[in-house]
Write a structure and sequence with these properties.
The chain is mainly β. The chain is built from no helices and eleven strands. 0% of the residues lie in helices and 50% in strands. Strands 2, 4, 5, 6, 9, 10 and 11 form a seven-stranded mixed β-sheet that branches. A four-stranded antiparallel β-sheet has the order 1-3-8-7, with no helix packed on it. The radius of gyration is 13 Å and the shape is globular. 33% of the residues are buried.
Length: 121
């Protein structure tokens, strides 16, 4: 019904920046709470950031707080993740997800296929 596609990943030097995008395709009749997640090699998938339906409320993992910013400037089902001051610990596959039920993100009902972010020193 709804498909999410991430883009913007790639190889970046320590201290550099990247902006990830998540775009919805298919049937999108309403605005969803959305989030960014990542999974590094040998580690469990973790929540990076999330944003409410309106875009007025956000959440950040402690590990990225102050460095990453999630946004949905068009108030639709397209979100961005601005990543600054990247370090090797940020290397992971990044996924976006949408929660069709909650005002704030609770569970991902739709998931993207992921985009690789590699930070080299």
């Amino acid at each position: 019904q709804v498909q999410l596609v991430e883009s913007g990943g790639g190889l970046v030097q320590v201290g550099g920046s990247l902006r990830l995008s998540c775009a919805a395709s298919g049937r999108t009749d309403s605005t969803y709470a959305m989030g960014w997640f990542r999974q590094a090699p040998g580690k469990e998938r973790e929540t990076v950031a999330a944003i409410s339906r309106s875009g007025s409320s956000t959440y950040y993992a402690d590990s990225v707080k102050g460095r990453f910013t999630i946004s949905r400037p068009n108030a639709k089902n397209t979100v961005y993740l601005q990543m600054n001051s990247l370090n090797p610990e940020d290397t992971a596959v990044y996924y976006c997800a949408a929660d069709r039920v909650g005002t704030r993100f609770v569970r991902g009902d739709y998931w993207g296929q992921g985009t690789q972010v590699t930070v080299s020193s």
